[in-house]
Design brief:
Layout lengths: L1 E4 L10 H10 L4 E4 L16 H14 L2 E5 L10 H21 L3 E5 L7 H22 L2 E5 L9 H11 L4 E6 L3 H4 L6 H8 L3 E6 L37 H10 L5 E4 L8 H16 L2
Parallel strand pairs: 1-2, 1-8, 2-3, 4-5, 5-6, 6-7, 7-8
Helix pairs in contact: 1-2, 3-4
């Protein structure tokens, strides 16, 4: 099992080399390289040259930290064709960067919009038609996650789409912070893991509240019909996710993929949050 850290706590207040050192200081062997403005920014063309890649590789070597996966986020599911084409260009460059870094796994979200799910699915498939041959040529694997607001939010929807792509190297990212979106507020972990079968390759750990609870008033948004989608990435125990069942199922399946601390809520106290999460995850996973 690779025990990784998503360094989003450090994405706006450090250089990339400082971030790598901070992750090493926190005691992690692996980084999930999530978006940052000086590397692969959200929805923008990667800001990386050969010198930057060499600097990152040198810093990783010095600290002993490795990259477990590269996480780009682009509008590859549209619904606008110009933006989809730009996203494919971004993806092609991100794949090149992964290869140059010696990283053989990328993970991402379905993107698109749940309010235009049919069109978004069409755009996603069009993008995959262009990108799948490149992933295969370069020997880079892909993990995908359903995300709140994306054209696929549910666990079953993610599993169905991954199976539809029908590539043995495309697997599932299971995000515990999305558990209540995965089945429309039920949060039935056993049912979700039963759906996932052998597809789970990467688990993102963070807690959240059930947005459907309290008669739909857990979060009060005005105006009441506003199209918003909300969740959190809290420390375990600060929300309502059933982690006892999650850990039990992962231990039972002898999970050997990537386990990432994906708490984003406490950038003012990353050391405290990290120490707490490391203890909880190692106890829960039995590592």
């Amino acid at each position: 099992m690779k025990f990784a850290y998503d360094p989003s706590h450090f994405r706006d207040n450090t250089t990339i080399t400082e971030m790598i050192h901070k992750v090493a200081d926190l005691g992690y062997e692996y980084i999930e390289m999530s978006p940052r403005v000086d590397f692969c920014p959200f929805y923008g063309f990667p800001k990386v040259d050969k010198a930057m890649i060499q600097t990152v590789k040198k810093t990783l070597s010095e600290t002993g930290v490795k990259i477990s996966s590269l996480l780009p986020l682009y509008h590859w599911a549209g619904p606008e064709e110009d933006r989809r084409q730009a996203a494919v260009r971004n993806w092609k460059r991100a794949i090149e960067i992964a290869v140059e870094l010696g990283v053989d796994l990328m993970n991402s979200e379905f993107s698109g919009s749940k309010y235009q799910a049919d069109v978004s699915e069409e755009m996603f498939i069009r993008s995959m038609d262009e990108l799948l041959p490149i992933f295969e040529k370069e020997g880079v694997r892909l993990n995908l996650q359903a995300h709140p607001y994306d054209f696929i939010e549910t666990n079953a929807g993610a599993v169905n789409m991954i199976r539809a792509l029908d590539k043995p190297w495309i697997k599932l990212v299971y995000s515990t912070a999305h558990a209540f979106y995965y089945d429309d507020g039920v949060g039935d972990i056993n049912a979700q893991f039963d759906e996932d079968g052998d597809l789970i390759d990467h688990v993102l750990f963070a807690d959240t509240y059930n947005h459907k609870a309290a008669f739909g008033l857990r979060y009060i948004v005005n105006p009441p019909d506003a199209k918003v989608t909300i969740h959190q990435h809290l420390n375990i125990g600060e929300g309502e996710v059933d982690f006892d069942t999650i850990f039990k199922r992962l231990r039972a399946m002898k999970f050997d993929g990537i386990a990432t601390n994906a708490v984003f809520a406490w950038s003012d106290k990353p050391q405290e949050s990290s120490d707490f999460m490391k203890k909880k995850l190692k106890e829960g996973l039995g590592i």
